[in-house]
Amino acid sequence: EPNENNPTLKRLIEAVKDMQKESEKGIKKLETPSEWGHHYSEFKGDGLGAINKLLETKKGFVAGAFYKEGLGDIDLVWGNKDYGLEHILKRREKQAKNQGLNEQQAKEYALNIAKTIPEVIEKGVKVERNGRMAIEYKNIRVGLKDNWKGEKLPNHWVITGYEKRSENSESLYTSPLITKGETLPLNSNEPNPTTNALKTQEPLSEQANAKKLLKEQHAITPLKEFGTNYPEFALKPKEALEKLLQEKNGQVAGAAYREDLGGIDFVWGTPKTKDSNGYGLAHILEKREKQYKRLGLTNEQAKERTKELLKQIPEVIEKGIKDNDYIGHATIRHNGIEVGLSSQKGNTPLKNHYMITSFETDEKVLRELKTIGTLSNNYRDGINYSTSNLNNPNPTTNALKTQEPLSEQANAKKLLKLESEKGIKAEALKKLDFDEIKKLIDESPRTGSSMTILGMQNLNAEAVEYIQKNHKRIAVEKIEPSFAKDLKLKYPDDARAVIDYQVINHILREHKNLAFEDIANYRELSKQANETLKLKDNQNRPVVASFNQINGFFVVVEQVSNAKNELMLKTMYKARENYKDSLIYKKTLAKSQNSN
Q1: Can you spell out the DSSP letters for 249-273?
Q2: Helix, strand, or coil here: 232?
Q3: Between vectors from CA 433 to CA 453 and to CA 571, what angle results, nearest 5°?
Q4: How many CB atoms lie within 10 A of CB 411?
Q5: Are 328 and 177 in contact (CB under 8 A)?
Q6: How confident is the model at residue 9, as a pLDDT?
């Protein structure tokens, strides 16, 4: 047995203690460097959320904002003009102004650059050159450092730079990631030939200038894959639509234009086949016709209604409000109608930046419909929802009115609604095999009311692993409307419980006693909880925290509501303790607004 009075042993013990103290001091110092400011820990693992937060506060940092296999956690720091996100923004603004953009345009260009960082980190490859680490994707490089002033970082990496590689460093080039096309042709792979001319010309109105540039530059270059281009219909969305409906092939590159999006292509595309999910107007027409026929319309009536429906697209594009759903995709909303856009076809970037991919309406519009020839209020089967122009009379309805008494029409509507609801329940109860589950996950839109419902019984451990490894996002089930209303979700009748790969990564990384199987049960745990508390997070969003006591352990499921009419899984954790004795419960209870 060691002798405590042994001087050699005592010196060794003291030396070890000193080393531990020094180590602890060093770690403490680096966990929150004073230069970095406030730590927004709630955005760990949420790269885009972290960027938006730092853009809003213009200070602070998020440790572990990103995670990359082979690198570990990556911090995002606001910094100042010499380092961090502010440094990146300032450099990009200066670059844009040197190429002829005004101050506002340069700022918007820089902001859009910053918002591509998550996709570069997610899809890019790790590259090390001359002792410097970076992640590269297409023509973009995000620089990383694993130290701060010579000291190793606990989270291993911090973002230090953002570069776009090109042969001519004096010209601005764009990546298909950048979601902006304005005076500068950010969606062109060539230098801007009109920059010098713009500096000497008299100012034009922004719209006229944008249209002029759209015509003059490569922005209206069509893709061969889309077939014949009808260039005479560029910037004429109504005529372009009529032409494609008449020809049933080809495209109109730059058929429409918006200042906040740039050029928008109209593409005829193809219906769904065994080799393709389908795309373009043909795909939208096919879905709408199928939908109307299910509601009892004849083939001819369904075709006519669908054509009328599509004629609203130009108005929605012109008057609607744009939302960015996720990188490379956008939605324009007008009077409850949504037009979905994509900036790439498969892995091919689009020269005109956006192509129409979907057309749908929300529950509010559906509730306003008064005719049997349109959708029932609660019709939902995982396809987009659409309606014809609500301000125009429906010829089908008028015909129906002359054929049957009003009471029979009312009964028909009621029956249609019941049949629709019955169909939903039957589909929701269907148990899928793994190949069917994968197909459903792959084909579902990532956001919006057209997301396919997977069903709780199909969210098993294999499905969770597939979502994580393939960077997917899926709606698990619909939320009870009264509960959705309590969470102040915009359309409670169509609110969805959603899970995505980033939160799965976060849970597995931060809570190693949880597995795919545990995550697969999160909805059941949330609904059968011993106690559920509602509170607000740091972004003032409603959060639901559900506490379960199971075999000596307590399991917590946190879900957060968002602006997309969703209740998103936020995190899960498990510990051996009575949940009411735990610190997390006491803190949550203190913050909660009410409990069940």
Answers
A1: S-EEEEEEEETTTEEEEEE--B---
A2: helix
A3: 50
A4: 12
A5: yes
A6: 66
d(CA 283, CA 516): 35
Pick the range with the lowest mean pLDDT from 2-16, 211-225, 232-246, 342-356.
Answer: 211-225
Is-above-0.85 flag for pTM?
Answer: no
In angstroms, the CA 170 to CA 465 distance is 45
pLDDT in tens, 67-123: 888 888 888 999 888 888 998 898 888 887 877 778 887 888 888 888 889 988 988
Can you tell me the distance from the alpha carbon of 142 to that of 164, in angstroms, rounded to the nearest whole number?
9
Instruction: With CA atoms as reference, report the closest residue to 62 among 157, 132, 133.
Output: 157
Cα 349 from Cα 187, distance rounded (Å): 9
Which distant-in-sequence residues (6+ apart) come within 8 Å of 302 by Cβ? 288, 289, 290, 292, 293
Contacts (Cβ under 8 Å, ≥6 apart) of 387: 309, 337, 361, 365, 366, 369, 374, 375
Strands 151-152 and 147-148: antiparallel
Instruction: Of 557, 452, 462, 441, give the one whose Cα is nearest residue 496.
Output: 452
Q: What does the alpha-carbon distance between residue 91 and residue 433 come to, in Å, rounded to a whole number?
A: 51
3-state secondary structure of 201: coil
The pLDDT, as a whole number, for residue 96 is 78
Rounded to 5°, the CA angle 398-401-406 comes to: 145
pLDDT digits (tens, 9 = 90+) for 352-388: 557 676 666 543 333 333 233 332 222 222 223 232 2
Q: Is 8 exposed, middle or buried (0-12, 13-18, 19+ CB in 10 A)?
A: exposed
Handedness of CA 505, 506, 507, 513 (dihedral sign): positive
In the block, residue with structure tokens 């130009």:
314
Alpha-carbon distance of 495 to 478, in angstroms, equals: 6
> What tokens were used for 53?
């937060």
